[in-house]
Structures are given as C-alpha cells and as structure tokens.
Amino acid sequence: MKKLEVIVAGGGIGGLSLALSLHQAGIAVRVYEAVRDPAPLGVGINLQPTAVRELTELGLADALAKTGIATRRLNLCNKFGQLIHDERRGLAAGYHWPQYSIHRGELQALLLRAVRDRIGDKNVQVGLKLAGFEQINARVRVRFTDRQSGSGPIDEADVLVGADGIHSAVRHQLYPVEGAPRFAQQTLWRAAVEAEPFLDGETIVIAGHFHQRIIVYPISRRPSGKILVNWICQKTVMDRAPPREDWNRRVTKQEVLATFGAWKFPWLDLPALIEQSCDIYEFPLVDRDPVEAWSFGRVTLLGDAAHPMQPIGGQAGSQAILDARALTRALSETRDPVAALARYDAERRPPMNGIILRNRNLGPEAAMQLAEERAPNGFAQISDVIPPHELDEIVTSFATAAGLDVDTVNTRPSYVPRDPSFPGSA
Questions:
Q1: Backbone Cα Rg of the chain
Q2: Which of 399, 397, 365 is nearest to 78 (CA)?
Q3: Which of 303, 325, 334, 332 is nearest to 316 (CA)?
Q4: Measured distance CA(212)–CA(142) in Å, rounded
Q5: What CA–CA distance (Å, rounded) separates 285 from 337?
Q6: How far apart (Å, rounded) are the C-alpha atoms in residues 87 and 396?
Q7: Which residues are paired to 282 by β-bridges?
Q8: How far apart are the first and last CA of the chain?
Q9: Confidence at residue 424, expressed as pLDDT on a 0 to 100 scale
Q10: 3-class state of residue 107 by DSSP
Q11: In what order do the strands lie in the sheet with 212-221?
C-alpha cells in the first residue's frame, strides 16, 4: 500500500510538532516554511504538562529540560503586588510531566533540528510561501512562491495542513472574506532580559487587572546564576487601529515606563527590568472569531491558523502541539484521509472554539479583575474580597474546560502509540 503523504504549510511550533508526529507514525511529510532563515525570534512561551507529555513521547524530554525552566508555581496578584491566588504547576501540582517556561525561538529551533534530523533536509523547504491549492483526483496540488524570485514549485500530496499562523494563506483561501484579525484594543510590550532570580526562580507572576497588567517569568538559566526573564506589559488602548503583528516593531523604554514605571514590588522591580532591556517589542493583542469548520476535503488547519486565541493561560503553543498529535492519530487510525480530517475537526474544533471565547474573558485571570473591581485600593485578606469557593470556581473551571486538569492529562491514552524503537520513548 502506498504510504500516505502530507504537506505541512508552516514551520512553527504546530507545524514542526506535526511533522515529528507524522514521522513517528510512519506517514510521509514535507514541510514548507515561508521564512528563508528561521531565526530564534520571539520571547517566552509556557508549555503546559499536556503538551510536554506529547513532546516527551516524541523523544524531546532531555532537550526541553536543558533549554527551559520547569515552572513550579503561578501567582496571581493585584496591581500592588498583593497575592490573590497561588497554585502549584507541573510536577509540583501532581502532573506526571513538568510545565516549561521556555524561549519561543529556542523551542522552535530544537523542534526544527529534530525535524531535519528525522525526515531529512530535503523534506524541509524554507523561503517558500503558499500561493494557493486545489483538490484534484484525490490529491491536493499546492503552489508555492519563492519570496526572492517570485516563482516557486508545485507539490502534490494526499493531505494539506495549514499550520501557517494567524495570517494563514490556507485559511484565507478557505475563508476569503474573513478579513483581518480581531483587535482586542490592547497592546503588549515584551522583552527578555538577564536578571537576578525573583521569588524562587521558578514562578510565573501575573499582576494587575484587565486594563493594565504584567506577566513575568524566567525562561532559562545562565551560568552566572542569573536567569533570562520574560516580561510582558499589557494595557488597554482605545485611540488607534492595531499594527500588523511584527516581532521587529521596537519601542523605547520611556514609552513603557510612562505606564509601568511605578510597578515596583518588594519581590520584583519591574522598572529595573525595563531599564535593563535592550530590545522591547510592541505587539497588538489579537485573535479571530471561531469558524464552523477547519477541514475541507483533504485540507485542514492547525494551531493559530485554526484557532488563533489570546495568550491567556499559556494555551496557544500547547494546543497547537495537541492538534498535531490528534491529527496524527486520526490519519493513522482512519484509512480515508477525508474521513480522518473530519474526525480531527470534530474532536478538536469545538473545545478550541470554546477556549477562544473564554480567553476573551481572561480565563483564570478573571480573578484579578474581580479583585480590582471590589478592592481597587488593595486588601488586608483576599478572602474578604473574593470568597474561597468563588475563587476556586474561577480558577478550576478553565482548566477543566480546556482539558488541563491533572486527572485528564495523567490518565488519557497516548494520541500516538509509542514505538519502543523510537528515540526517547522509554
């Protein structure tokens, strides 16, 4: 029987995870990435235990441990740095796998190395942007454009997966009148800077409220004993349209300090982190409305191309990895590729559409907004402001709805049966 062939448009976290998964399952895969020289861009990302489980089953546990920091705790605070809620994360919370805070670019780099090692350089083509596709005689014919020459190759496969991000060319052909991403009227300023560890050196802190908040966490250790700290300052803006997302859009320290210059807590000096940062990037907070289908015949979507969401709860990258594993399972267990893509769509799209909408309401971070509304000048005890049962409901409902609770992650069957001969499967 002829081996199933899959073309993956997009060499980000989701597309590369899919390539590794398909290879593990014995499915032929070719990856096309629009960027000619993929560089380790971006700042921090959090990989939830459910995604770390999948990367572990792909043989990447050691690489992750060397690169990222195993997160032990999440603290939610008000704008004065007072603790609203804290919870254990990863292994400390009882998961069988860690949660990792990691540099997005370094994660993508380690995935790309693994893909090239396993499927071969000839099956990873860079500098080629998808220009269009058509489904003909039980195949998908895909046209690519070289950004330098303006021309490009044509390739054919049994399946095309659009893993090409929030501005997906595949999604645009499927939904040509969808328009631009939805701007949430908020701007994010982001940077990564070497600093002394704060708290225990393994904690994520989110502080503030809906209209003004910070997210700070370590993403790697340095030989000097310092850590690389990822910081995000987020604020509501009502007076302008969003620029297109671009990690190369820099802003000055003065612009950030004008809004967050007073955010200095006993355990964190945010203004000092801002002052020490060499490059600060501006990014609009965007997502897209849920759609009624990802799969159309032999074409489907994955990751941000399928469910672009606001970065609440560390979901976007983790869910892209789960998409990759669920799609691999569907293609492995369902002989007809069209039926397999429909199965994947039915399994993944409804919960992801729900997360898109939940994230617009801050997910578990809604507790911070509630504290701001009820105690804008701070509090003596959080229980005086938010009763424990109410706080618990806010925090746990999101994890359960997203399939992130400990029991679900620890006990569900593997998406792809483990092959004892596969690297790192033991």
A1: 21
A2: 365
A3: 303
A4: 44
A5: 35
A6: 11
A7: 189
A8: 30
A9: 45
A10: helix
A11: 83-88, 73-77, 203-209, 212-221, 227-236, 182-195, 280-287, 250-251
Residue 281 within a domain: yes
CATH of the domain at 199: 3.30.9.30
Rounded (10°) CA dihedral 59, 202, 49, 345: -100
What is the domain extent for residue 201?
Answer: 184-217+227-287
- Cα(303)–Cα(288) distance, integer angstroms: 12
- What mean pLDDT value characterizes the chain? 91
CA distance 256 to 122: 44
Locus of tokens 């070289």:
146
List all residues 6 or more positions away from 290 whose beta carbon is below 8 Å from its beta carbon.
Answer: 307, 349, 352, 353, 356, 357
Question: Could you tell me if residue 263 is inside a domain?
Answer: yes
Whether residue 240 lies inside any domain: the answer is yes
- Identify which of 261, 251, 271, 267 has the alpha carbon closest to the alpha carbon of residue 188: 251
Token reading at 420: 């004892």
Q: Report the percent of the chain where pLDDT is more than 70.
A: 93
* Number of compact structural domains in the chain: 1
Helix, strand or coil, per DSSP, at residue 254? helix
The residues near 147 (Cβ < 8 Å, ≥ 6 apart) are 34, 36, 127, 128, 129
Selection from 355, 200, 213, 198 nearest residue 267 by Cα: 198
For tokens 């861009």, the residue is 41
Q: For 143-152, 319-328, 344-353, 379-388, which range has the lowest pLDDT when averaged over its residues?
A: 143-152
Structure tokens at 42: 């971006």
Residue 41 vs residue 424, higher pLDDT: 41
Name every residue whose Cβ is closer than 8 Å to that of residue 177 and which is 6 or more positions away in sequence.
none
Q: Tell me whether residue 268 is in a domain.
A: yes
The tens digit of pLDDT for each residue in 192-206 reads: 999 999 999 999 999
